[in-house]
Amino acid sequence: MDADGAAIGALLCSGLTVARGRAPVLRGVELEIPSGTRTALVGPSGAGKTTLLRAIAGLQPVQSGTIELGGQRVDGLPAHRRGCAVVFQEPRLLPHLDAAENVAFSLRTAGVRRVERRSRAAALLGDVGLDGFGRRRVGELSGGEQQRIALARALCAEPQLLLLDEPFSAVDANRREELRALLVALQQERRLTTLFVTHDRGEAAQLGERVALMLEGRIIQHDEPSVLFERPSSPIVARFFGSSNILRGVIRAGAITLGQCTIPAPGPDGEACLTIRPERVILARDGPLELQVLETTYTGTHTRLRLGSGDLALVATVAPSLAPAAGAHVRVELPIEDLWRIPLAHEAGEVPAQEWDLT
Amino acid sequence: MREPRRIATAAAVVLFAAPLTVLVIQAFAEVWRYPALLPQQFGLRGFRVAFAEGDAAAAVSNSLEVALLSTGLAVLIAWPAARSLAATRGRWHGAVLLLLALPLLVPPFATGTGLTEWFIRLGLAGTRAGLVLAHLTVVLPYVLLVLTSAFSPRVVELEEMARSLGTPPLRRLVFVTVPSVRAVLTAAFLLGFLVSWSQYGTSLVVGAGLPMLPLTLLPFIGSDPTVAAALSLMFLVPAILALVLASRATRETL
Question: What is the pLDDT of residue B89?
């Protein structure tokens, strides 16, 4: 905490607006990242995630709104005076320098002596798992190694805020896990305020202490990962996090009628919109709902079932060994503790109904 | 597979080297009477005459000064122009490039004659400043057209990286931009230099008798081949140096 009581490195954006030509890209973004914490910014392509990151870094002019970093307004400052380091999607290393000089880039431009900057770079290379790589040329490094160097370079600048724009998307899946773990370890060790952009909800859950969902230029929900997955604030949020089970009806005396069947439901009586994650839908011999298996899809880790009966449609995921055949009739239980009642106020939606890729 | 390539390389070397060898021999030939294959006597008469009658010293220094100044100015002017041309690929991109290349299509004599009219009124005719400006009109399009290819999105990306890591503008230029475009920048500078170095038409019209290397060389070509060859050597040395430097600069960044 500094003298004004504002946390050092805390980020606060309010009312950020960016337009590209006449098309709005950011429509009044509100985002707060407490000092020393990690937020994953997730959303479909074109939602404005990268634009927001660039606006915070000062690489993208904004039409209106304010950005505070460590309690100071930074939206009027040029990028190089904001103290945000960016790790981009591509490594953006300087090909005429070796690995150590790339890591020590910020020291090099600040006029730090060669011996000192190379020893700092060597320590940072060790931190990112590239011990002894100092003399390597950029061209000799793999994509993952280059991205590790980009990360070390950002850390070397000792930023107030670390911004990462899908930095691991070009790295193959197995290496990506390692890099995520490395990033979390480095962030925690240094208590760096961090914003991580990704379009992958699984990556967002793994990386963010908190996850912010962005749709069409607005932050829709910003909370702990489990809240976004299990207690979404709107059907759109539920769908983005992989739950397309949206059940509408009226709750009377603690129960809701779905199709021909009535099951216990949470909350007070009245109109309701319920959601349940596909992995929480239970196939049970004595379940109250009877549905037909319309389609089965093997995904490698589990089997996804599309179930239906009249207007009622559900998606369930089960272990492949337990998956019924398509066309079979199954009984299903929806445990009341796994049913989440989406607040109706949000359901009408600040976000207009729209189509995006839900795969 | 490799034989034809070797023969082609050898042929290229011979074709390039043969006239040069003759030129070097000619320059140092004191007495060379037909039908001898080599001169009967070697000496430095060619260079002596070139410096005494041809004003070679003044010509070399004038040419060098004008070439360096006009190319330097051209790079300074072309740099921001090339940046904005590379950044905004608008509908008129092709048309703008064509307009910029126009001076290349007009014979330098014509440009020079037009300029002289104005330079006489402005008191620039026959001065070095006038020559620099006249050469600039010819050098600038070459430099600009080469330099436009330097500022790819990659350079902009590297500059963004530097901005986000706290590098102020001037240091960004020194540590990121110039090293990133060094090969193209060198090529543009050397091409500009050579264009100015070998400029005949504009120098003749605007220079009003100011000794420039291509101008002093010409009268000797018919009258005294040895002096002409000596002057040609002086003319060639910077050109060859430029070529070697350019090829080294491009190789290092590749």
Answer: 73
- The 10s digit of each residue's pLDDT in B13-28 is 888 888 888 888 888 8
Reported as half-sphere exposure (CB side, CA atoms, 13 A), residue A30 has a value of 3
Asked if pLDDT for residue B254 goes beyond 50, the answer is no
What does the pLDDT read at residue B4? 85
Q: Is A195 strand, coil or helix?
A: strand
Q: Average model confidence (pLDDT) for chain B?
A: 86
Tally the domains of chain B. 1
Helix, strand or coil, per DSSP, at residue B123: coil
Q: What is the pLDDT of residue A2?
A: 42
**Does residue B11 fall inside a structural domain?**
no
Average pLDDT on A293-311 reads 91
- Note whether residue B17 is domain-resident: no
Spatial contact of B202 and B135, defined as CB atoms under 8 Å apart:
yes
Q: Please, what are the domains in chain A?
A: 36-62+82-230 (3.40.50.300), 244-345 (2.40.50.140)
Question: Which region holds residue B26: left if phi is over 0, alpha if psi is between -120 and 50, else beta?
Answer: alpha
Any domain includes B82: yes
Boundaries of domain holding B105: 58-212+238-253
B13, part of any domain: no
B177 CB near a chain A CB, below 8 Å?
Answer: no
Any CB–CB contact under 8 A between B163 and chain A? yes
Q: In this complex, do B164 and A95 lie within 8 Å of one another by their Cβ atoms?
A: no
Q: Which of A56, A90, A109, A138 to mutate to test the interface with B (most CBs of B within 10 A)?
A: A109
Each residue of B60-99: pLDDT tens digit?
889 999 999 999 999 999 999 999 888 877 778 888 888 8
B167: Cα separation from own chain's centroid: 35
Please give the structure tokens belonging to residue B113. Answer: 């004659």
Instruction: Report whether the peptide linkage leading into residue B238 is cis, meaning its omega lies within 30 degrees of zero.
Output: no
Q: Supply the pLDDT for residue A225.
A: 93
Q: Residue A105: its chain B contacts at CB < 8 A?
A: 162, 165, 167, 175
Question: ipTM score of the complex?
Answer: 0.85
CATH of the domain at B92: 1.10.3720.10
Find, in chain B, the residue whose alpha carbon is nearest to that of A159: B165
Give the pLDDT confidence of A218-259 residue by residue, as tens digits. 999 999 999 999 999 999 999 999 888 999 888 888 888 887
Residue B165 burial by Cβ neighbours in a 10 Å radius (0-12, 13-18, 19+): buried
CA–CA gap between residue B156 and residue B142 (Å, rounded): 23
How many angstroms separate the Cα of A352 from the Cα of each of A176, A346, A347? 34, 11, 10
CB nearest to A80's CB, from B167, B182, B253: B167
Where are the alpha helices (H) located in A231-295, listed in sequence order? 235-240
* pLDDT value, residue A1: 41
What share of chain A in percent tops pLDDT 70? 94
Question: How much is the pLDDT for A16?
Answer: 95
Q: By the 8 A CB rule, do A15 and A66 touch? A: yes
Contact B134, B120 (CB under 8 A): no
Across the interface, which of A92, A95, A109 has its CB nearest the CB of B167? A109
Instruction: Look at residues B108, B176, B101 and name the one whose alpha carbon lies nearest to residue B143.
Output: B101
A-B C-beta contacts closer than 8 Å: 65
